[in-house]
Design brief:
single chain; about 350 residues; mainly alpha; 4 domains; 21 helices
Length: about 350
């Protein structure tokens, strides 16, 4: 129910204590806590929190008419507010998160300043592992240990598993030494990392170079794919190895697909295309293993029917076979993107 302005006027002016706006704010906060409705003040600037606390300690006590007047005035002010807006650029960015282009958001973050009204570790904790991994790879072991200590346990464990064994062990040991790190030092590390991450120019591509090259080579002819990989190995062996791991082709089906998911895959592929793919694969050594894996992990009746169709079809043109096998791979990728299936992660050799 809305409060009428007459409610404030009904309290005799002679009974009201003269108070500043900050004192009134302290009274309202104290009243809410006394009524079991304590509010968080962490989003206020530090100097405002300090001033509010100091005023609360100085007031000592107030009489009931003064309390009624302050609370009524506060309620009236709330009743007249139509819509609240962020008090700074950082807050406005939070409201518009996801609505701005990457380039515009990057410019505004720089203009707003890093950590102005927000804990930089909150910003860092929201980043995905792809953005956080380079920090653990490139920064000092000690900073890596602080980062792991400030993240959720699940994310820290995921990041640790992505690091080379030796570095992972060194950072893990360094975590045991972080107990003596001063809070101010941890705060400075967070601000520096958040500033560094915000200063990085936004990428025009959603995926990294490895993923993009891998996706292109997925649907290239086998001869082209091997030729490109050989060229990459001569230029950058590490990059070439990462690309190889990112590639998923027909040959990878036995190692990367759970047999229980194969019915979903075969349902997504046109029967004629599937038969063409299996027939083409049967004529090649590595692809034949994938074809047999598919046939073995479906109903015996359907497998027998497909084997008859494959035998009837006979030899398949190289181009037609490549296209059909790529269509099966494309169906698998679509199912993975939709969350219908999950690819099995290959173990490191």
């Amino acid at each position: 129910m809305s409060l009428a302005p007459a409610a404030l006027a009904a309290i005799p002016a002679s009974s009201r204590r003269v108070l500043s706006r900050r004192q009134k704010a302290a009274i309202v906060v104290r009243f809410l806590h006394a009524e079991g409705m304590g509010i968080s003040l962490v989003d206020l600037p530090d100097d405002m929190q300090v001033a509010l606390t100091e005023h609360m300690s100085e007031i000592r006590y107030i009489d009931r008419p003064t309390l009624n007047a302050v609370v009524t005035e506060f309620a009236l002010e709330l009743d007249t507010i139509g819509l609240g807006f962020p008090t700074d650029l950082s807050g406005a960015l939070g409201v518009l998160d996801g609505s701005l282009s990457d380039s515009a958001a990057a410019r505004l973050r720089i203009a707003a300043g890093v950590g102005l009204n927000r804990d930089p570790w909150e910003q860092i904790a929201e980043l995905d592992t792809a953005r956080l991994l380079p920090i653990l790879q490139e920064e000092s072991i000690e900073i890596g240990a602080v980062v792991l200590s400030k993240l959720k346990v699940s994310k820290s464990a995921e990041l640790l598993g992505m690091l080379p064994g030796e570095r992972a062990r060194r950072i893990t040991y360094a975590v045991s030494q972080t107990g003596a790190v001063a809070p101010a030092t941890v705060s400075k590390i967070g601000q520096a990392l958040a500033s560094q991450l915000d200063a990085a120019p936004p990428s025009a591509f959603e995926e990294g170079a490895v993923e993009r090259v891998g996706a292109i080579l997925n649907f290239s002819a086998a001869a082209t794919r091997e030729d490109v990989l050989d060229g990459l190995r001569s230029e950058d062996e590490e990059f070439a190895e990462e690309v190889r791991k990112a590639i998923f082709t027909f040959v990878n089906i036995p190692a990367r697909i759970d047999p229980r998911d194969l019915p979903k895959v075969t349902r997504e592929v046109d029967a004629t295309v599937l038969i063409t793919a299996l027939a083409a694969a049967a004529a090649k050594e590595e692809e034949a293993k994938a074809a047999e894996f598919i046939l073995t992990n479906m109903s015996q009746r359907m497998a027998a029917q497909l084997r008859d169709e494959i035998e009837t079809l006979g030899r398949v043109k190289e181009k037609d076979g490549e296209e059909a096998m790529n269509a099966v791979v494309a169906a698998i990728r679509e199912l993975e993107s939709a969350g219908e299936i999950m690819l099995v992660v290959e173990e490191e050799e």
